[in-house]
Amino acid sequence: MDKKRLAINMTAQVLAFAVNMGISFFLAPIVEGQIGKNVYGFVALANQFVLYAQIAVSALNTMASRFVTIHIHRGEKQTAGEYFSSVFFGNVIMAGIFLAPALVIVIFMGYMPFLNVPDEMLRDVQLLWALVFANFFLSIITSVYGVSTYAANRLDLTSIRTMIADILRIVFLLVTFIVWKPTLWFIGAASLISTSYIAFWNQRFARQLLPEIQVKRSDFRWKKVWELVSLGAWNSLTRLGQQLLDGVDILLSGALILDGNESMTILALAKQVPTAISSLMGTIVGVFNPQITIAYAEGNKDKLVNMIKSCNRILIFIMSIPIAFLTAYGLDFYRLWQPTKDPYVLQRISLLAVGVLYVSMSIQVLYHVFIITKKVKWNSLVLLASGVVSSIMSLILLKTTNLGVMCFTLSSMVTGILRNLIFTPVYAARCLEISWTRFYSDILLGFFSIGMITVLGFLSRMVYPIHSWGSLIITGLVMGPLSLAVNFFIILRKEERDIVLEMVRSRLKGAA
What we know:
By secondary structure, this protein is mainly α. About 80% of the residues lie in helices and about 0% in strands. The protein is built from 22 helices and no strands. The protein has helices spanning about 5-35, 40-60, 65-75, 75-105, 120-140, 145-150, 155-180, 185-210, 220-245, 250-255, 260-270, 270-300, 300-335, 345-355, 355-360, 365-370, 375-400, 405-420, 425-430, 440-465, 470-490, 495-510. It is globular. The model has no long low-confidence stretch (mean pLDDT about 80).
Protein backbone atom coordinates (compact mmCIF):
# COMPACT_ATOMS: atom_id res chain seq x y z
CA MET A 1 0.00 0.00 0.00
CA ASP A 2 1.33 3.44 -1.00
CA LYS A 3 0.57 5.18 2.30
CA LYS A 4 1.89 8.59 1.23
CA ARG A 5 -0.17 8.68 -1.98
CA LEU A 6 -3.21 7.39 -0.09
CA ALA A 7 -2.81 10.12 2.53
CA ILE A 8 -2.44 12.88 -0.07
CA ASN A 9 -5.46 11.66 -2.03
CA MET A 10 -7.60 11.40 1.10
CA THR A 11 -6.60 14.84 2.40
CA ALA A 12 -7.48 16.46 -0.91
CA GLN A 13 -10.75 14.54 -1.24
CA VAL A 14 -11.90 15.39 2.29
CA LEU A 15 -11.06 19.09 1.83
CA ALA A 16 -13.02 19.17 -1.44
CA PHE A 17 -15.91 17.43 0.28
CA ALA A 18 -15.85 19.92 3.18
CA VAL A 19 -16.08 22.88 0.79
CA ASN A 20 -18.95 21.28 -1.13
CA MET A 21 -20.93 20.46 2.01
CA GLY A 22 -20.31 23.89 3.47
CA ILE A 23 -21.83 25.42 0.35
CA SER A 24 -24.85 23.08 0.51
CA PHE A 25 -25.67 23.93 4.13
CA PHE A 26 -25.12 27.61 3.46
CA LEU A 27 -27.41 27.48 0.42
CA ALA A 28 -30.48 25.75 1.94
CA PRO A 29 -31.49 28.48 4.44
CA ILE A 30 -30.85 31.19 1.81
CA VAL A 31 -33.21 29.48 -0.65
CA GLU A 32 -35.88 29.08 2.04
CA GLY A 33 -35.42 32.60 3.36
CA GLN A 34 -34.96 34.68 0.20
CA ILE A 35 -36.63 32.80 -2.66
CA GLY A 36 -39.70 31.42 -0.91
CA LYS A 37 -41.00 29.08 1.74
CA ASN A 38 -41.12 25.35 0.88
CA VAL A 39 -39.35 25.75 -2.51
CA TYR A 40 -36.05 24.04 -1.65
CA GLY A 41 -37.71 20.69 -2.37
CA PHE A 42 -37.78 21.55 -6.10
CA VAL A 43 -33.97 21.77 -6.13
CA ALA A 44 -33.69 18.34 -4.50
CA LEU A 45 -36.40 16.92 -6.78
CA ALA A 46 -34.60 18.15 -9.92
CA ASN A 47 -31.46 16.37 -8.77
CA GLN A 48 -33.48 13.22 -8.05
CA PHE A 49 -34.82 13.17 -11.63
CA VAL A 50 -31.26 13.46 -12.94
CA LEU A 51 -30.25 10.55 -10.70
CA TYR A 52 -32.86 8.35 -12.40
CA ALA A 53 -31.26 9.17 -15.77
CA GLN A 54 -27.81 8.51 -14.33
CA ILE A 55 -28.97 5.04 -13.32
CA ALA A 56 -29.35 4.12 -16.99
CA VAL A 57 -26.09 5.84 -17.96
CA SER A 58 -24.23 4.05 -15.17
CA ALA A 59 -24.71 0.76 -17.03
CA LEU A 60 -21.92 1.92 -19.34
CA ASN A 61 -19.84 4.05 -16.97
CA THR A 62 -19.54 2.18 -13.66
CA MET A 63 -17.17 -0.45 -15.03
CA ALA A 64 -15.09 1.95 -17.16
CA SER A 65 -12.56 2.81 -14.44
CA ARG A 66 -12.15 -0.85 -13.55
CA PHE A 67 -11.40 -2.02 -17.13
CA VAL A 68 -9.19 0.92 -18.15
CA THR A 69 -7.15 0.77 -14.93
CA ILE A 70 -6.61 -2.98 -14.98
CA HIS A 71 -5.53 -3.06 -18.65
CA ILE A 72 -3.17 -0.09 -18.19
CA HIS A 73 -1.46 -1.73 -15.21
CA ARG A 74 -1.18 -4.97 -17.16
CA GLY A 75 0.56 -3.09 -20.01
CA GLU A 76 -2.36 -3.58 -22.46
CA LYS A 77 -2.63 0.07 -23.56
CA GLN A 78 -4.35 -0.57 -26.90
CA THR A 79 -7.15 -2.44 -25.15
CA ALA A 80 -7.41 0.30 -22.52
CA GLY A 81 -7.71 2.89 -25.32
CA GLU A 82 -10.51 0.94 -26.94
CA TYR A 83 -12.50 0.91 -23.69
CA PHE A 84 -11.80 4.63 -23.22
CA SER A 85 -13.04 5.63 -26.70
CA SER A 86 -16.00 3.25 -26.58
CA VAL A 87 -17.22 4.77 -23.32
CA PHE A 88 -16.90 8.33 -24.67
CA PHE A 89 -18.92 7.72 -27.84
CA GLY A 90 -21.40 5.55 -25.96
CA ASN A 91 -22.05 8.45 -23.58
CA VAL A 92 -22.60 10.83 -26.51
CA ILE A 93 -25.24 8.46 -27.90
CA MET A 94 -26.94 8.19 -24.50
CA ALA A 95 -27.00 11.97 -24.09
CA GLY A 96 -28.81 12.22 -27.43
CA ILE A 97 -31.36 9.63 -26.31
CA PHE A 98 -32.14 11.47 -23.06
CA LEU A 99 -32.43 14.89 -24.71
CA ALA A 100 -36.02 14.36 -25.92
CA PRO A 101 -37.58 13.33 -22.56
CA ALA A 102 -35.68 16.14 -20.81
CA LEU A 103 -37.21 18.70 -23.18
CA VAL A 104 -40.69 17.22 -22.67
CA ILE A 105 -40.40 17.44 -18.87
CA VAL A 106 -39.18 21.05 -18.95
CA ILE A 107 -41.68 22.32 -21.56
CA PHE A 108 -44.77 20.56 -20.19
CA MET A 109 -43.91 20.82 -16.48
CA GLY A 110 -47.00 22.93 -15.75
CA TYR A 111 -49.25 20.08 -16.92
CA MET A 112 -47.68 17.45 -14.66
CA PRO A 113 -49.82 17.28 -11.47
CA PHE A 114 -47.40 15.03 -9.58
CA LEU A 115 -44.84 17.86 -9.63
CA ASN A 116 -47.34 20.33 -8.17
CA VAL A 117 -45.40 23.46 -9.20
CA PRO A 118 -47.12 26.73 -8.14
CA ASP A 119 -48.02 28.94 -11.13
CA GLU A 120 -45.95 31.85 -9.85
CA MET A 121 -42.87 29.57 -9.62
CA LEU A 122 -43.31 27.72 -12.93
CA ARG A 123 -40.92 29.72 -15.13
CA ASP A 124 -38.23 29.74 -12.45
CA VAL A 125 -38.51 25.97 -11.84
CA GLN A 126 -38.48 25.30 -15.61
CA LEU A 127 -35.23 27.25 -16.01
CA LEU A 128 -33.75 25.48 -12.98
CA TRP A 129 -34.56 22.05 -14.41
CA ALA A 130 -33.32 22.98 -17.90
CA LEU A 131 -29.95 23.96 -16.43
CA VAL A 132 -29.82 20.85 -14.22
CA PHE A 133 -30.42 18.66 -17.28
CA ALA A 134 -27.78 20.57 -19.27
CA ASN A 135 -25.36 19.99 -16.42
CA PHE A 136 -26.19 16.28 -16.54
CA PHE A 137 -25.51 16.04 -20.29
CA LEU A 138 -22.15 17.79 -19.97
CA SER A 139 -21.09 15.61 -17.04
CA ILE A 140 -21.87 12.28 -18.73
CA ILE A 141 -20.27 13.23 -22.06
CA THR A 142 -17.00 14.21 -20.35
CA SER A 143 -17.10 11.68 -17.50
CA VAL A 144 -14.68 9.22 -19.10
CA TYR A 145 -11.83 11.74 -18.77
CA GLY A 146 -12.09 11.35 -14.98
CA VAL A 147 -10.75 7.81 -15.40
CA SER A 148 -7.23 9.20 -15.86
CA THR A 149 -6.72 10.36 -12.26
CA TYR A 150 -8.26 7.10 -11.02
CA ALA A 151 -5.97 4.91 -13.16
CA ALA A 152 -2.90 6.95 -12.18
CA ASN A 153 -3.95 7.00 -8.50
CA ARG A 154 -3.89 10.82 -8.52
CA LEU A 155 -7.31 11.59 -7.07
CA ASP A 156 -5.80 14.62 -5.33
CA LEU A 157 -5.65 16.45 -8.68
CA THR A 158 -9.37 16.01 -9.26
CA SER A 159 -10.15 16.95 -5.66
CA ILE A 160 -8.29 20.25 -5.87
CA ARG A 161 -10.09 21.21 -9.08
CA THR A 162 -13.42 20.14 -7.59
CA MET A 163 -12.77 22.36 -4.58
CA ILE A 164 -11.99 25.34 -6.82
CA ALA A 165 -15.11 24.58 -8.87
CA ASP A 166 -17.22 24.64 -5.71
CA ILE A 167 -15.71 27.99 -4.73
CA LEU A 168 -16.59 29.32 -8.20
CA ARG A 169 -20.13 28.06 -7.66
CA ILE A 170 -20.61 29.87 -4.35
CA VAL A 171 -18.98 33.09 -5.67
CA PHE A 172 -21.40 33.06 -8.61
CA LEU A 173 -24.36 32.55 -6.27
CA LEU A 174 -23.24 35.26 -3.88
CA VAL A 175 -22.80 37.80 -6.68
CA THR A 176 -26.09 36.98 -8.39
CA PHE A 177 -28.05 36.88 -5.12
CA ILE A 178 -26.64 40.29 -4.15
CA VAL A 179 -26.97 42.04 -7.54
CA TRP A 180 -30.31 40.57 -8.67
CA LYS A 181 -33.43 39.18 -7.03
CA PRO A 182 -32.62 35.59 -5.91
CA THR A 183 -34.19 32.89 -8.11
CA LEU A 184 -33.96 29.10 -8.26
CA TRP A 185 -32.40 28.99 -11.72
CA PHE A 186 -29.25 30.73 -10.41
CA ILE A 187 -28.54 27.45 -8.55
CA GLY A 188 -28.68 25.46 -11.80
CA ALA A 189 -26.48 27.98 -13.60
CA ALA A 190 -23.90 27.83 -10.81
CA SER A 191 -23.74 24.02 -11.04
CA LEU A 192 -23.28 24.17 -14.82
CA ILE A 193 -20.36 26.59 -14.44
CA SER A 194 -18.80 24.31 -11.82
CA THR A 195 -19.15 21.19 -13.98
CA SER A 196 -17.70 23.00 -17.02
CA TYR A 197 -14.59 23.89 -15.02
CA ILE A 198 -14.15 20.29 -13.80
CA ALA A 199 -14.68 18.90 -17.32
CA PHE A 200 -12.00 21.22 -18.73
CA TRP A 201 -9.43 20.09 -16.17
CA ASN A 202 -10.31 16.39 -16.44
CA GLN A 203 -9.51 16.59 -20.15
CA ARG A 204 -6.15 18.22 -19.38
CA PHE A 205 -5.34 15.58 -16.75
CA ALA A 206 -6.19 12.83 -19.23
CA ARG A 207 -3.67 14.25 -21.71
CA GLN A 208 -0.99 14.62 -19.01
CA LEU A 209 -1.42 11.35 -17.09
CA LEU A 210 -2.46 9.04 -19.93
CA PRO A 211 -0.92 10.59 -23.07
CA GLU A 212 -1.11 7.26 -24.88
CA ILE A 213 -4.88 6.96 -24.25
CA GLN A 214 -6.97 9.26 -26.44
CA VAL A 215 -10.49 9.42 -27.81
CA LYS A 216 -10.38 7.99 -31.35
CA ARG A 217 -13.26 7.01 -33.59
CA SER A 218 -11.13 4.17 -34.92
CA ASP A 219 -10.91 2.71 -31.38
CA PHE A 220 -14.69 2.64 -30.87
CA ARG A 221 -15.90 -0.94 -30.47
CA TRP A 222 -19.54 -1.93 -30.10
CA LYS A 223 -18.26 -5.15 -28.55
CA LYS A 224 -16.57 -3.17 -25.75
CA VAL A 225 -19.74 -1.14 -25.20
CA TRP A 226 -21.79 -4.30 -24.92
CA GLU A 227 -19.27 -5.88 -22.54
CA LEU A 228 -19.39 -2.84 -20.26
CA VAL A 229 -23.19 -2.52 -20.46
CA SER A 230 -23.82 -6.22 -19.84
CA LEU A 231 -21.85 -6.02 -16.60
CA GLY A 232 -22.78 -2.45 -15.76
CA ALA A 233 -26.50 -3.17 -16.15
CA TRP A 234 -26.32 -5.00 -12.83
CA ASN A 235 -24.83 -1.86 -11.28
CA SER A 236 -27.71 0.10 -12.78
CA LEU A 237 -30.05 -2.25 -10.94
CA THR A 238 -28.00 -1.60 -7.81
CA ARG A 239 -28.45 2.15 -8.20
CA LEU A 240 -32.15 1.70 -8.95
CA GLY A 241 -32.54 -0.23 -5.72
CA GLN A 242 -30.59 2.45 -3.85
CA GLN A 243 -32.77 5.13 -5.39
CA LEU A 244 -35.91 3.27 -4.29
CA LEU A 245 -34.41 3.16 -0.81
CA ASP A 246 -33.17 6.75 -0.59
CA GLY A 247 -34.52 8.89 -3.43
CA VAL A 248 -38.09 8.12 -4.39
CA ASP A 249 -39.34 9.41 -1.03
CA ILE A 250 -39.07 13.08 -2.04
CA LEU A 251 -41.18 12.49 -5.15
CA LEU A 252 -43.78 10.40 -3.28
CA SER A 253 -44.02 12.84 -0.39
CA GLY A 254 -44.83 15.64 -2.81
CA ALA A 255 -47.44 13.55 -4.65
CA LEU A 256 -49.13 11.51 -1.88
CA ILE A 257 -49.12 13.69 1.23
CA LEU A 258 -51.72 16.47 1.52
CA ASP A 259 -49.23 19.22 2.40
CA GLY A 260 -47.03 17.99 -0.47
CA ASN A 261 -44.60 20.87 -0.97
CA GLU A 262 -44.07 21.34 2.78
CA SER A 263 -43.46 17.62 3.37
CA MET A 264 -41.14 17.46 0.37
CA THR A 265 -39.12 20.39 1.70
CA ILE A 266 -39.00 19.00 5.27
CA LEU A 267 -37.75 15.65 3.95
CA ALA A 268 -35.17 17.31 1.69
CA LEU A 269 -33.84 19.44 4.57
CA ALA A 270 -33.82 16.57 7.10
CA LYS A 271 -31.88 14.33 4.70
CA GLN A 272 -29.15 16.87 3.97
CA VAL A 273 -26.99 15.89 6.95
CA PRO A 274 -27.41 12.11 6.40
CA THR A 275 -26.72 12.64 2.69
CA ALA A 276 -23.61 14.64 3.54
CA ILE A 277 -22.41 11.86 5.84
CA SER A 278 -23.04 9.27 3.11
CA SER A 279 -21.16 11.44 0.62
CA LEU A 280 -18.19 11.74 2.97
CA MET A 281 -18.21 7.96 3.35
CA GLY A 282 -18.21 7.56 -0.43
CA THR A 283 -15.35 10.06 -0.71
CA ILE A 284 -13.17 8.10 1.71
CA VAL A 285 -13.97 4.77 0.08
CA GLY A 286 -13.22 6.28 -3.33
CA VAL A 287 -9.68 7.08 -2.20
CA PHE A 288 -9.02 3.39 -1.55
CA ASN A 289 -10.70 2.09 -4.72
CA PRO A 290 -7.79 2.72 -7.16
CA GLN A 291 -5.28 0.92 -4.94
CA ILE A 292 -7.76 -1.91 -4.32
CA THR A 293 -8.27 -2.24 -8.09
CA ILE A 294 -4.50 -2.19 -8.72
CA ALA A 295 -3.93 -4.84 -6.00
CA TYR A 296 -6.56 -7.03 -7.65
CA ALA A 297 -4.92 -6.53 -11.07
CA GLU A 298 -1.62 -7.67 -9.56
CA GLY A 299 -3.29 -10.81 -8.17
CA ASN A 300 -2.14 -10.18 -4.59
CA LYS A 301 -5.04 -11.44 -2.42
CA ASP A 302 -3.34 -10.89 0.96
CA LYS A 303 -2.52 -7.30 0.05
CA LEU A 304 -6.07 -6.82 -1.22
CA VAL A 305 -7.78 -8.15 1.92
CA ASN A 306 -5.46 -6.20 4.22
CA MET A 307 -6.20 -3.01 2.27
CA ILE A 308 -9.95 -3.62 2.62
CA LYS A 309 -9.59 -4.10 6.38
CA SER A 310 -7.54 -0.90 6.63
CA CYS A 311 -10.21 0.97 4.69
CA ASN A 312 -12.90 -0.35 7.04
CA ARG A 313 -11.01 0.86 10.12
CA ILE A 314 -10.29 4.29 8.65
CA LEU A 315 -13.96 4.57 7.74
CA ILE A 316 -14.87 3.84 11.36
CA PHE A 317 -12.20 6.25 12.61
CA ILE A 318 -13.71 9.13 10.59
CA MET A 319 -17.38 8.27 10.00
CA SER A 320 -18.39 7.27 13.52
CA ILE A 321 -17.86 10.89 14.63
CA PRO A 322 -20.41 12.68 12.39
CA ILE A 323 -22.93 9.86 12.93
CA ALA A 324 -22.52 10.08 16.72
CA PHE A 325 -22.57 13.89 16.63
CA LEU A 326 -25.84 13.88 14.69
CA THR A 327 -27.28 11.53 17.30
CA ALA A 328 -26.11 13.64 20.23
CA TYR A 329 -26.29 17.21 18.90
CA GLY A 330 -28.78 16.97 16.00
CA LEU A 331 -31.65 18.64 17.83
CA ASP A 332 -29.48 21.63 18.76
CA PHE A 333 -28.19 21.91 15.19
CA TYR A 334 -31.66 21.91 13.61
CA ARG A 335 -32.93 24.55 16.07
CA LEU A 336 -30.17 26.86 14.88
CA TRP A 337 -30.00 25.91 11.18
CA GLN A 338 -33.73 25.95 10.40
CA PRO A 339 -35.39 28.09 13.07
CA THR A 340 -38.72 28.19 11.18
CA LYS A 341 -39.05 24.36 11.08
CA ASP A 342 -39.87 21.84 13.81
CA PRO A 343 -36.44 20.63 15.06
CA TYR A 344 -37.91 17.45 16.60
CA VAL A 345 -39.36 16.35 13.25
CA LEU A 346 -36.12 17.15 11.43
CA GLN A 347 -34.08 15.23 14.01
CA ARG A 348 -36.31 12.15 13.93
CA ILE A 349 -36.25 11.97 10.14
CA SER A 350 -32.50 12.51 9.95
CA LEU A 351 -31.78 9.81 12.55
CA LEU A 352 -33.92 7.33 10.62
CA ALA A 353 -32.15 8.33 7.39
CA VAL A 354 -28.71 7.86 8.94
CA GLY A 355 -29.67 4.65 10.77
CA VAL A 356 -28.47 2.28 8.05
CA LEU A 357 -24.99 3.84 8.26
CA TYR A 358 -24.57 2.40 11.73
CA VAL A 359 -23.91 -0.88 9.89
CA SER A 360 -22.86 0.06 6.34
CA MET A 361 -20.27 2.59 7.55
CA SER A 362 -17.92 -0.23 8.55
CA ILE A 363 -18.17 -2.26 5.33
CA GLN A 364 -18.91 0.23 2.56
CA VAL A 365 -15.78 -0.67 0.61
CA LEU A 366 -17.14 -4.19 0.11
CA TYR A 367 -19.41 -2.90 -2.66
CA HIS A 368 -16.28 -2.22 -4.71
CA VAL A 369 -15.28 -5.86 -4.25
CA PHE A 370 -18.31 -6.86 -6.33
CA ILE A 371 -17.13 -4.57 -9.14
CA ILE A 372 -13.46 -5.61 -9.31
CA THR A 373 -14.34 -9.33 -9.13
CA LYS A 374 -17.11 -8.81 -11.74
CA LYS A 375 -19.62 -10.49 -9.40
CA VAL A 376 -22.25 -7.78 -9.37
CA LYS A 377 -25.36 -9.80 -10.21
CA TRP A 378 -26.47 -11.00 -6.79
CA ASN A 379 -25.66 -7.74 -5.04
CA SER A 380 -27.72 -5.88 -7.64
CA LEU A 381 -30.70 -8.22 -7.30
CA VAL A 382 -30.64 -8.09 -3.50
CA LEU A 383 -30.36 -4.30 -3.42
CA LEU A 384 -33.15 -3.92 -5.99
CA ALA A 385 -35.37 -6.29 -4.00
CA SER A 386 -34.72 -4.36 -0.79
CA GLY A 387 -35.58 -1.13 -2.61
CA VAL A 388 -38.89 -2.57 -3.83
CA VAL A 389 -39.70 -3.92 -0.36
CA SER A 390 -38.84 -0.55 1.17
CA SER A 391 -41.14 1.32 -1.25
CA ILE A 392 -44.03 -1.09 -0.60
CA MET A 393 -43.48 -0.84 3.15
CA SER A 394 -43.49 2.96 2.90
CA LEU A 395 -46.85 2.98 1.11
CA ILE A 396 -48.36 0.56 3.65
CA LEU A 397 -47.12 2.66 6.59
CA LEU A 398 -48.38 5.82 4.90
CA LYS A 399 -51.85 4.26 4.64
CA THR A 400 -52.03 2.65 8.07
CA THR A 401 -50.13 5.02 10.40
CA ASN A 402 -49.75 8.71 11.21
CA LEU A 403 -45.99 8.71 10.67
CA GLY A 404 -46.18 10.91 7.56
CA VAL A 405 -42.85 11.46 5.80
CA MET A 406 -41.08 9.34 8.44
CA CYS A 407 -42.58 6.26 6.74
CA PHE A 408 -40.03 6.56 3.95
CA THR A 409 -36.91 6.85 6.08
CA LEU A 410 -38.11 4.16 8.53
CA SER A 411 -38.70 1.53 5.84
CA SER A 412 -35.41 2.40 4.12
CA MET A 413 -33.50 2.04 7.39
CA VAL A 414 -35.03 -1.36 8.27
CA THR A 415 -34.40 -2.95 4.86
CA GLY A 416 -30.92 -1.40 4.59
CA ILE A 417 -29.78 -2.67 7.98
CA LEU A 418 -31.04 -6.19 7.30
CA ARG A 419 -29.30 -6.30 3.91
CA ASN A 420 -25.98 -5.09 5.30
CA LEU A 421 -26.09 -7.52 8.22
CA ILE A 422 -27.23 -10.64 6.39
CA PHE A 423 -25.99 -10.40 2.80
CA THR A 424 -23.22 -7.85 2.06
CA PRO A 425 -20.39 -9.07 4.35
CA VAL A 426 -21.09 -12.73 3.61
CA TYR A 427 -21.22 -12.41 -0.18
CA ALA A 428 -18.16 -10.15 -0.32
CA ALA A 429 -16.18 -12.74 1.66
CA ARG A 430 -17.34 -15.40 -0.77
CA CYS A 431 -16.22 -13.30 -3.77
CA LEU A 432 -12.77 -12.99 -2.16
CA GLU A 433 -12.79 -16.71 -1.20
CA ILE A 434 -12.18 -16.04 2.51
CA SER A 435 -14.07 -16.89 5.71
CA TRP A 436 -17.69 -15.63 5.66
CA THR A 437 -17.29 -14.12 9.14
CA ARG A 438 -14.22 -12.04 8.21
CA PHE A 439 -15.95 -8.63 8.15
CA TYR A 440 -18.38 -8.93 11.07
CA SER A 441 -15.71 -7.82 13.53
CA ASP A 442 -15.53 -4.51 11.65
CA ILE A 443 -19.29 -4.02 12.04
CA LEU A 444 -19.04 -4.63 15.80
CA LEU A 445 -16.10 -2.25 15.99
CA GLY A 446 -18.18 0.41 14.25
CA PHE A 447 -21.07 -0.03 16.70
CA PHE A 448 -18.66 0.31 19.60
CA SER A 449 -17.09 3.50 18.25
CA ILE A 450 -20.44 5.21 17.51
CA GLY A 451 -21.83 4.23 20.92
CA MET A 452 -18.76 5.45 22.78
CA ILE A 453 -18.70 8.86 21.06
CA THR A 454 -22.49 9.29 21.40
CA VAL A 455 -22.23 8.76 25.17
CA LEU A 456 -19.42 11.34 25.34
CA GLY A 457 -21.64 13.73 23.35
CA PHE A 458 -24.63 13.40 25.69
CA LEU A 459 -22.35 13.89 28.70
CA SER A 460 -20.89 17.05 27.16
CA ARG A 461 -24.39 18.46 26.57
CA MET A 462 -25.17 17.95 30.27
CA VAL A 463 -22.03 19.86 31.27
CA TYR A 464 -22.20 22.53 28.54
CA PRO A 465 -25.71 23.04 27.03
CA ILE A 466 -25.92 24.41 23.49
CA HIS A 467 -27.94 27.61 22.97
CA SER A 468 -26.19 29.33 20.04
CA TRP A 469 -23.96 28.77 17.03
CA GLY A 470 -21.04 29.88 19.19
CA SER A 471 -21.64 27.21 21.84
CA LEU A 472 -22.19 24.56 19.14
CA ILE A 473 -18.91 25.49 17.44
CA ILE A 474 -17.03 25.48 20.75
CA THR A 475 -18.48 22.04 21.53
CA GLY A 476 -17.35 20.80 18.13
CA LEU A 477 -13.87 22.23 18.54
CA VAL A 478 -13.51 20.37 21.85
CA MET A 479 -15.38 17.12 21.17
CA GLY A 480 -14.15 16.65 17.60
CA PRO A 481 -10.43 16.32 18.41
CA LEU A 482 -11.26 14.34 21.58
CA SER A 483 -13.31 11.83 19.54
CA LEU A 484 -10.55 11.57 16.92
CA ALA A 485 -7.98 10.90 19.64
CA VAL A 486 -10.13 8.18 21.20
CA ASN A 487 -10.69 6.51 17.83
CA PHE A 488 -7.02 6.90 16.88
CA PHE A 489 -5.81 4.76 19.78
CA ILE A 490 -8.76 2.35 20.11
CA ILE A 491 -9.92 1.71 16.53
CA LEU A 492 -6.77 1.99 14.38
CA ARG A 493 -3.88 -0.40 14.10
CA LYS A 494 -0.32 0.83 13.55
CA GLU A 495 -0.69 0.60 9.78
CA GLU A 496 -3.76 2.87 9.73
CA ARG A 497 -2.20 5.25 12.26
CA ASP A 498 0.71 5.75 9.86
CA ILE A 499 -1.74 6.69 7.10
CA VAL A 500 -3.51 9.21 9.34
CA LEU A 501 -0.22 10.73 10.49
CA GLU A 502 0.88 11.03 6.86
CA MET A 503 -2.40 12.85 6.14
CA VAL A 504 -1.62 15.33 8.91
CA ARG A 505 1.94 15.83 7.67
CA SER A 506 0.81 16.43 4.08
CA ARG A 507 -1.81 18.91 5.30
CA LEU A 508 0.76 20.79 7.38
CA LYS A 509 3.18 20.92 4.43
CA GLY A 510 0.37 22.29 2.25
CA ALA A 511 -0.38 25.01 4.81
CA ALA A 512 3.31 25.97 5.22
